[in-house]
Amino acid sequence: MKIAVVGTGYVGLVTGTCFSETGNEVTCIDIDQAKVDSLKKGKITIYEPGLEPIFDRNRKDGRLKFTTDLAEGIKEAEVIFLALPTPPGEDGSADLKYILGVADQIGKVLDHYAVIVDKSTVPVGTAEKVHAKIAANAKVEFDVVSNPEFLREGVAVEDFMKPDRVVVGTSSDRAKAIMERLYAPLVRQGNPIIFMDERSAEMTKYAANSFLAMKITFMNEMANLCELAGANVDNVRKGIGTDSRIGKRFLFPGIGYGGSCFPKDVQALGKTAQEFNYDFKILKSIMLVNEKQKVKLIPQVKEYFNGDLKGKTIALWGLAFKPYTDDIREAPSLYNIKALKRAGAKVVVFDPEAMNNVKKEVGKKVKYASNMYEALEGADALMIMTEWPEFRTPDFSKMKDKLKNKVIFDGRNLYDLHEIKAQGFEYYSIGRETVK
Ligand SMILES: NC(=O)c1ccc[n+]([C@@H]2O[C@H](COP(=O)([O-])OP(=O)(O)OC[C@H]3O[C@@H](n4cnc5c(N)ncnc54)[C@H](O)[C@@H]3O)[C@@H](O)[C@H]2O)c1
Ligand SMILES: O=c1ccn([C@@H]2O[C@H](COP(=O)(O)OP(=O)(O)O[C@H]3O[C@H](CO)[C@@H](O)[C@H](O)[C@H]3O)[C@@H](O)[C@H]2O)c(=O)[nH]1
User: Is NAD a UniProt keyword of this protein (predicted)?
Assistant: First the structure.
């Protein structure tokens, strides 16, 4: 099948690359000339484990092409994916200017029947808006389908190629048959394609992200209570996660959720509720708790230094919003850097992948170490922001040699309490007893 993907960012590149792998002819379109030039030369523009070999193979075989020209890119495409940004607008609701702008352009150049697919995360009612925009100019028949994407950064290829489910919202039998054919190689592995109406499909995406954010937030609040009550949240997590009605995943407490999706999508669903005059109380709580949780360790760091961080050097391990990505959008590390700087501390950071992105955002306000141990050289304390695997099994003696004070503030519960005690560290983590 010939398909086009408009927007070649994270989701667009994964979508285009994976669909070329299942034998389709894919053209990815982006307005960013530098991005398209780089992709044409074979230089991948995102860090995503496992994507590069598939990208290389299909590009070389001519199944994966790139262009900045929308009309050329969608020529003869049976399916046109919109994988465009939907950032929060000024009031927190999803900004549809990219989607509707492209829909307007498509209407002007479309010269054959095609299924236009909203792959971006868009509020309920968007498929109708996209339809109206295209219809204003289109001289041919077309359908608009909602097909939200559920991939996670870092495991995006796996999530795309073996989806738990594929959700397709459409009221057109013609579009349904095309989507069924396109997804057949992926859903054949036993994972269902769930057809529904457009509005329910749009709502499903926000429901999934908000539910997961709620699960994490619940555990963060449980962790805070466990600390006060002398319980261990890790035990509680295991105790409830084994109940299949609750499930083991997304129960890990920490310093809040971040990334390009949960924060904006919980906020946008809240805005949708407001539009319909519905007071969705739990969403408000999720956002409030998460804001506080991100900087939860800061008061403990201050207390350790008797309230004064001026002149103290704090080392940060981990900057990305989660491991296996260089993405720092809404990363808790950025909020902690800000809080530490505001309190007068010096900050030295290390992350295996996200250093360049942080340099662009934070510049010279912090010092950049070339490895995890260099970050500790003469530092007064260590804070852990991201659970990269190399931080899980460090050389503790090397750490003790370099750190001025043997103290760790761990936002990701990386270490066993007995082991860290045996190593002689003072250790603060989330929802567990402090080791002194
Ligand atoms: N990143 C994720 O993990 C993820 C997962 C599921 C869903 N989503 C959703 O998918 C959508 C896209 O997210 P993303 O992370 O891929 O965004 P992104 O910012 O990485 O990529 C968007 C791309 O669109 C391009 N673009 C902007 N205007 C354009 C135009 N007029 N024509 C062509 N290209 C244009 C940009 O240059 C950019 O390359 C969002 O709605 C997001 O919520 C993201
Ligand atoms: O038990 C957990 C699991 C996750 N997190 C945090 O939650 C955030 C989001 O993690 P994750 O969901 O793995 O990352 P994303 O790549 O943002 O993926 C989410 O957002 C995407 C964009 O909408 C969706 O497609 C995915 O299904 C959804 O998981 C990160 O800050 C994690 O540190 C926790 O604190 N505890």
Answer: yes
H helix runs in 65-114, sequence order: 70-73, 97-109
pLDDT at 189: 61
CB count in 10 Å sphere of residue 128: 13
- At residue 10, the 3 state secondary structure works out as helix
Identity of the residue numbered 27? T
Domain boundary among 141, 166, 196: 196
57 is in an annotated binding site: no
For atom 15 of ligand 2, the residue with the nearest CA is 152
Residue whose C-alpha is closest to residue 106's, from 80, 124, 85, 128: 80
Say yes or no: 316 and 222 in one domain.
no
The ligand 2 atom nearest the CA atom of 255: 35
Residues 25 and 110 in one domain: yes
Burial category of 424 from C-beta neighbours within 10 Å (exposed 0-12, middle 13-18, buried 19 and up): exposed
Residue 434 lies in a domain: no
Q: Mutate which of 47, 93, 260 to test ligand 1's pocket (most atoms within 8 Å of Cβ)?
A: 260
- Look at residue 191 in the predicted model and tell me its pLDDT: 80
Report the number of distinct structural domains present in the chain: 3
Same domain for 151 and 93: yes
Domain check: are 304 and 354 in the same one?
yes
Q: Is 18 a catalytic residue?
A: no
- Known binding residue 254? Answer is yes
Give the per-residue pLDDT at 67. Answer: 98
Mutate which of 212, 237, 333 for ligand 2 pocket (most atoms within 8 A of beta carbon):
212
Q: Any idea what the CATH number is for the domain that residue 265 is in?
A: 1.10.1040.10
247 lies in the same domain as 311: no
Distance CA 1, CA 120 (A): 21
Same domain? For 223 and 311 the reply is no
Residues 6+ apart with CB under 8 A from 390: 352, 372
Instruction: Report the pLDDT value the prediction gives residue 142, as an integer from 0 to 100.
Output: 98
Structural domain containing residue 379: 295-428
Tell me which residue has its CA closest to atom 39 in ligand 1: 9
Helix-helix angle 355-362:332-342, to 10 degrees: 40
* 159 Cβ below 6 A of ligand 2: no
Direct distance between the N- and C-terminal alpha carbons of the chain, in angstroms, rounded to an integer: 62
Extract the tokens encoding 141. Answer: 């028949």
Q: Which stretches of the chain score pLDDT less than 50?
A: none
pTM of the predicted model as reported, rounded to 2 decimal places? 0.95
407 CA → ligand 1 middle, Å:
40
Task: Tell me the two tokens of residue 61.
Answer: 């075989």
